Amino acid sequence: MLYPIIPSSSLKVLKIFGIEEKDINFNTIKNHNALISNSKINKIDILFKKIDSNHD
Fold first, then answer.
1. Which of 10, 17, 23, 46 could be 3's S-S partner, Cβ–Cβ 3.0 to 4.6 Å?
2. Which of 45, 47, 43, 21 is nearest to 34 (CA)?
3. Where are the domains of the chain?
4. pLDDT of amino acid 28
């Protein structure tokens, strides 16, 4: 659902679950069948970098 807003981060999340961009389909969300039980979860990388604000 967030793909149109934050596509690069959404693709990182899909990669974690082994889902490719071409597999994005609203019917899989509606039917809750996008994730397969007992499937491997890939290494999770940082999705968003921390914004460091210095208030000197």
1. 10
2. 21
3. 1-39
4. 66
